From TrEMBL:
<dbReference type="InterPro" id="IPR055166">
    <property type="entry name" value="Transc_reg_Sar_Rot_HTH"/>
</dbReference>
<dbReference type="InterPro" id="IPR036390">
    <property type="entry name" value="WH_DNA-bd_sf"/>
</dbReference>
<dbReference type="InterPro" id="IPR000835">
    <property type="entry name" value="HTH_MarR-typ"/>
</dbReference>
<dbReference type="GO" id="GO:0003700">
    <property type="term" value="F:DNA-binding transcription factor activity"/>
</dbReference>
<comment type="similarity">
    <text>Belongs to the SarZ family.</text>
</comment>
<dbReference type="GO" id="GO:0005737">
    <property type="term" value="C:cytoplasm"/>
</dbReference>
<protein>
    <recommendedName>
        <fullName>HTH-type transcriptional regulator SarZ</fullName>
    </recommendedName>
</protein>
<feature type="domain" description="HTH marR-type">
    <location>
        <begin position="1"/>
        <end position="139"/>
    </location>
</feature>
<dbReference type="GO" id="GO:0003677">
    <property type="term" value="F:DNA binding"/>
</dbReference>
<dbReference type="Pfam" id="PF22381">
    <property type="entry name" value="Staph_reg_Sar_Rot"/>
</dbReference>
<dbReference type="InterPro" id="IPR036388">
    <property type="entry name" value="WH-like_DNA-bd_sf"/>
</dbReference>
<keyword id="KW-0805">Transcription regulation</keyword>
<keyword id="KW-0804">Transcription</keyword>
<keyword id="KW-0238">DNA-binding</keyword>
Amino acid sequence: MENIDWVYMVEKMQDIRLFSRLLIRRSSKQYEMPSQHLELLSQLAVSKENMTPMSLSKSMGLNKTIISRIIDTLNKSGYLIKTRDEDDKRSYFVSITELGREQIDDIYKHYLGPIYDLRRKLGDKEFYELISLIEKANTKILEGERER
């Protein structure tokens, strides 16, 4: 086994924890939304095609019953609307409303704000170098986990 300076490594682990804590914002009532609801609205916001409950079910990896419940909840909140498919009267399309778009914009601005601040402070070059090293470290850690 390598001779590792454990004091140094503990200090570095504390640095990593502090870095993570500074970047991760805690939720507040204003920005609370279940992750599956946020993901569904995000799918609708970026989709270039009409989405049906079935297409959302496939893209999110959730069964259609769960998707239908999420759609009903978001529809009642005014975040999305359902439009009947004129070709297939049994089906409908789902689209995000302006209120839904504003809600996810606010949520993402809140949670991603510290990362955008870091990017501005470091500059694009150093920020992307940092991200690249984090991705590389994650890959190495996952490879080590698989080898065990």
